[in-house]
Amino acid sequence: MTVPDERFPRPRALRDHLSRRPQLVEPPPPIPEPRPAVDDSALEGPAWFSYIAAGDEIVWSAGLAAMLGRPPSGNEIGRQVVTRYVHRDDHAKALGAITRTWTGRQPVRVTVRLMRADGSWFDVDCRLEPIAGPEGTVRGVQGTVHDVSVRERARREVARLTRRSETVQASIIERDPATRLLTRARFADEVDRALAMARRLADLLVEALQAHPFVLPAHWSRARAWAGLVRYRPDGEAGSHDLLIDAEHAWRQAREADRPLTLVAHPVPSRDRQGSYRSRVADALDTDRFTLFWQPILELQSNTVTRHELLLRVLDETDGPQSPIQVLDTAERLDAVYDIDLWVVERALQLAAHRPDLCLQVNLSGRSMGDPRLTTEVERLIDRYGVNPEQLTFEITETALIGNLSEARYFADRIRDLGCELALDDFGSGYASFRYLRQFPIDLVKIDGEYVVNLVHSPQDQVLVRALVQVCQAYGIHTVAEFVQDEPTLRMLRELGVDYVQGYLVGRPEPLAPVGLRRSN
What we know:
Elements: H1 11-20, E1 47-52, E2 57-60, H2 62-68, H3 79-85, H4 91-104, E3 108-115, E4 121-132, E5 138-147, H5 149-167, H6 199-211, E6 213-215, E7 220-222, E8 227-230, H7 240-257, E9 261-264, H8 270-286, E10 290-299, E11 304-315, E12 321-322, H9 325-333, H10 338-354, E13 360-364, H11 366-369, H12 372-385, E14 392-397, H13 405-418, E15 421-427, H14 435-439, E16 444-447, H15 459-475, E17 478-481, H16 487-496, E18 500-501, E19 510-511
């Protein structure tokens, strides 16, 4: 039994129409619920279609309609069939196969991507055969269709990995082309700023904050405030970040002693500063002052959430989650971030062991990635918890300062040997840019949300995102767009060829439910 027909144009009309490559008649609908893979055996009979030139008539089976996810519309003319149901990048391939079948009068096989009603797509093998007329002329084309999405996904992944292996730089050691001497990897020093603060001004600031009333919905309130001052010499060794760390430690002392101000006569020696902050980090880890959130990542091909990114949060004094940026920045500068990263990695592996159906993305600092201890610890934890390494993707931000490039490359190569993947976060926001794509075997690039949040209204951002996607495709790298907040942005990213999206439209970060996570000895 067949369903109402749709119509093809004649081959010449098809060719003329596809040369103009019109846009979709209707925008895709909102993100649907995840769909299972299509099983040919579960369809309503075989998937087939036939086209008869007389009357420009096409008939297709209920099985094909089920694969496409919508019944055909009787009022669609022939040219709309190809533009609506064949992936835009496969229009020329589909037209060529039809033309060869028609003119060559022999069967032709072709693999194309078909579009579902919800905007997702799937791969099919199509066998086209000519329909002979009474005088031996071709009066039409008939075709049978089989879903081969699993096969084609595997083929594309093999091709991607091949391109990735061909485009990764074999060595990260670079030499000056003139002298052949090694160059410096990067400059991480910041220009120190002179700070001039007087004790009296600090006292006045504290008094002003304490005296100022704050209006709340139900009552008036006054704030409690403390200050920390560090006296320093302009020609001293302490930099601006060192002074801020010492000042933060000083106001904490003032709060503990319940006095408005603590004055530090001189900057703390660097070794003492590092030891003090490491103790604070260890105390925060032991008292559960860190927690994890997670955020879903949507694969655009299947419209299915296939990954989750783990996000670190710091609990404030009221147990409210806060951004860890300041804590991680200070910890990285004082070489105290390794313990935090290891805490996150272990909890990610515990979660992966508890939920083998999840694929998790774990953020690492650049300094930890260059730490020779990390590779050994990750291997030990994977073995301890019996985790499938393919569940894990390790992310490093493009703006990170990698402490040891050789160790970082060793870590990247080793985790990929185990089966994990490597992702580059915030691509386009830092100084590394395309250099990391050759230095490290990156599998996934996350396009910085700065170029996504206003994408629909910014032609410049559209050009940039399109270029980034094309570069990553040439290198065999998947792409993720961050900060996706609305449907128009999602549709444009789909048209630009982005593989995954992440943002409030897909799902907000949520607290990670406890699964018996604990810290190992």
